Amino acid sequence: MTENRFKRLLTALILVLLSSMGCAHHTPAIPFDGSIKSLPHQNMETNDLETRDLENGKSLIEEQDDDEFFDEEFDLIEDEPMRVADPLKPWNVAMFHVNDKLILWVIEPVAKGYRAVTPVVVRLCIKNFFKNLYTPVRMVNCLLQGKGTAAEKEFARFLVNSTIGILGFGDPAGKHPQLTRPDAEDLGQTLGVYGVGDGFFIVWPLLGPSTLRDSIGTIGDGFLNPLSHMFSSDNSRAVELSILEKINIASFYIGEYKAFKEATINPYVSQRDIYLQLRKKKIQE
Q1: Is residue 86 part of a domain?
Q2: Which residue of 30, 77, 224, 264 has the fewest CB atoms within a 10 Å radius of its CB?
Q3: Is residue 93 part of a domain?
Q4: DSSP one-letter string for the chain
Q5: Is residue 178 situated within a structural domain?
């Protein structure tokens, strides 16, 4: 009994570590999304590996639709800095450095090994599956924000990909312009649309940057997350699926975090400003 409890605790710890790579309804702790490809210090080895994996000529970036975290991140940095309270700055800086070491020492090595033994086609199918699985989170928040057309697209994509796409492993809906995936919506954005302010900035250990409002939103989105309700009699299975998802996501963005750090003078401030400005932009849309 004690051994089983220890295994579950260990599995849960690994999940928490990997969750810093992002999830369907929470902004990633760092920009592992392919959008830093324009940086002067981009890891060329990573690009070469992904190019080799995609010899069929199809761009990985084209497959990543709303996983894009910093589509215009450096344009955002040039804007006026966000005026959001940072009363927990000593804590936030400390947690930033904790997350920094976890990413470099744990997450990237695990993801690099996973990528070495898993074909890119398989990784894309797994990515599509989880993206399809999290449709309820996005669709409900679209409805709450009054975005009826976006909610209809989410529902239509779910039907097409769950049937023709075989449980979402394929993305046949992506071939139809009228079913183009809308921007991902979450409860933090929904609260912002209704006028709820950021509160204050906070960096969570392992989970990365957030605000008081977005932290509450993440908890709320958890109730819509199908993985929270799957395998109710055996939570370890849901944990295993979540670990697979996080490792799979990380495998696409190896080397991006180092590029981000090398391109900024103060990574903590840059991460904070990018996060806050991006969230503001998402809410305004």
Answers
A1: no
A2: 77
A3: no
A4: -HHHHHHHHHHHHHHHHHGGG-BTTB--SS--SSGGGGSTT--HHHHHHHHHHTTTS--TGGG-GGG-S-TTHHHHHTSPPP----TTHHHHHHHHHHHHHHIIIIIHHHHHHHHHHS-HHHHHHHHHHHHHHTHHHHHHHHHHTT-HHHHHHHHHHHHHHHHTTTTTTS-GGGGSGGGPPPPP--HHHHHHHTT-----EEEETTTEEEEHHHHHHHHHHHTT-GGGTTTTT-HHHHHHHHHHHHHHHHHT-TTHHHHHHHT-SSHHHHHHHHHHHHHHHHHH-
A5: no
In a domain, 168, yes or no: no
Total domains in the fold of the chain: 1
Structure tokens at 206: 């392992």
pLDDT digits (tens, 9 = 90+) for 135-190: 999 999 999 999 999 999 999 999 999 999 999 999 999 888 888 777 789 999 99
Contact 191, 279 (CB under 8 A): no
Query: How far apart, in Å, are the Cα atoms of 193 and each of 3, 115, 159, 223?
Result: 47, 38, 28, 20
22 by Cβ neighbours in 10 Å (0-12 / 13-18 / 19+) ranks as buried
Residue range of the domain that includes 246: 2-55+103-127+184-284
